Description:
Order of helices and strands: HEHHHHHHHHHHEEHHHHHHHHHHEEH
Number of domains: 3
Structural class: mainly alpha
Number of strands: 5
CATH class of the largest domain: Mainly Alpha
Strand order of the largest sheet: 1-5-4
Number of helices: 22
Distance between the termini: 30 Å
Largest sheet: 3 strands, antiparallel
CATH topology of the largest domain: Glycosyltransferase
Amino acid sequence: MNASRSARARRVSTDVQSDSQLDVAISAARDALIKLQAADGHWCFELEADCTIPAEYILMMHFMDELDPALEQRLARYLREKQVLSGHGGWPLYEAGALDLSCTVKAYYALKLAGDDVNAPHMRQARTAILARGGAAKANVFTRIALALFGQIPWRGVPYIPVEIMLLPKWFPFHLDKVSYWSRTVMVPLFVLCTLKPRAKNPKQVDIRELFVTPPDEERHYFAANGTLNRVFLGLDRLGRLVEPLIPKKVRAHALKKAENWFVPRLNGEDGLGAIFPAMVNAYETLALLGYSKDHPLRSTCLKSIQKLVVERTDGSAYCQPCVSPVWDTGWAALALLASGMTIDDAPVRNSLDWLISKQELTHRGDWQVRAPNLAPGGWAFQYANPDYPDLDDTALVAAVLHVAAHSEADKAAFQMPVARAADWLVGLQSENGGFASFDADNTYYYLNRIPFADHGALLDPPTEDVSGRVLLLLGVLKREQDQEAIRRCVDYLKKAQQADGSWWGRWGTNYVYGTWSVLAGLMFVGESREAPYIRKAVAWLKAQQNADGGWGESNDSYQVPKPADAGHESTAYSTAWGLLGLMVTGDVHSEAAQRAADWLVARQQTSGPLQGLWHHPTFTAPGFPRVFYLKYHGYTAYFPLWALARYRQLRAV
């Protein structure tokens, strides 16, 4: 009897100690997050991409002959550091990833433009790796277009994309309305560049002929025919080149003007065209080509939008972000603070919500209206300003945060209209298959991913599981009668999209752990049974992926096709947070798996240094485009672990 009481006492003592540690961890994480909040209430963490972006910044400066030697050297230092970290002599698309040929070609060229000696060891290593993979001629389309603009390969080495594409009717197999928002904003100024074929100023006349196995003018295999449809498109590509001389000058002039009239109204001030770096650079170079002077307000503002993406680091290096993520960061950070015990009456939460409300787009009808012409605006964008392109993921997140935060009648009344407008807008953009995409409805013209220009396979914006789960969550917490049919259709879509092993794919976060958590959260909030076989299968998959140390980890290698076999990867704070959230949303709060995950997060929290109270891991947290472009959201190791621990404390107390 005494032994039994002693054992119970030890368990109680351990629980109290654990609770105390949990409270300390949550308080430290909350305080650290609040310290990073801007004066106006928002958060904006760094958003790092692979080395193609800083390399392209250097290429842009030399294309325009607008050199900034000091910045160039800081960017070059960053590129060299990333090469050393890779361990294979080239540059990967994400931390610890395999060498990527296209990224390595751009980084090599950028370093050579910056003055690096081709006989330096790091340049020799990169060059050897490039040649071993077939040389620069085997790089992807966007890299080859950059090389053509610098005169390094002939224009026949890139797809034929004449500006007359702007004149094609909507019924034509290819039309701007049939591709994703990011493709539109990147392509329209690129049409002009590839039609007028300007030569980069390249003031130092730097070339990279040493990166070709076969001399560029003699190369006959810039395109690989993969499948019947791809061969058809390659044939049309060759036909287009043959008939180009027959295009009347008036038709070309009309097409050029139509392209200009498309992208100039969308330049978006200092936030930039599409608020994404590749589109901004193409627009900046195209404005110069079309005769806009260096001091013209449109051109100078476009340059500022690009310069604002540069991040200066304390070690003397610098890199360029592909875009910024303030709305996304602020939504998750606010949700984490609410879970930690703060309320809307606390200034950090109130200020963040006020800032978010100010960013809702309620008047401007963006490109999404092509699919929903009678739909009223109501979305949020990812960036500070991107009125033509609000996205469904941010909109669902922010609307849910506003709904959850409102507890007084006054707040409920104040948030009712923004939330209702957001929900109406989201439901209005549901795709035919029941799912939700990121920016448009029914952007599913999959054959377009077979055109020569689309070798990256990211031309479209189809519905995805994680975005659908997020929208479903919002509709579930709102419990509006008018959304029931949309909910039913979305649930059906998600059931069909589930992987054979029980997981769901993650389009905007790495990868199956993120996708599975996102979907489970949506399904639970619309009332799907926790005991449904397909839900239990998903939970079993999550538990099976948990590492022996209690955490979860997943590599971006998981985006390869076919899917690699599941294998244990080093645990990370963000994956562990997603895994724990996935368990908890299905009611699995008191399990050993949940306890071990929470313990892992508490034990790995930074207790000193600049990241005190937060978490850190060098891995990239999300794809920009799976298998092509990856991102590191620096905020993911700040707000997701805090939110997971805070929810764990909340739910365990119920």
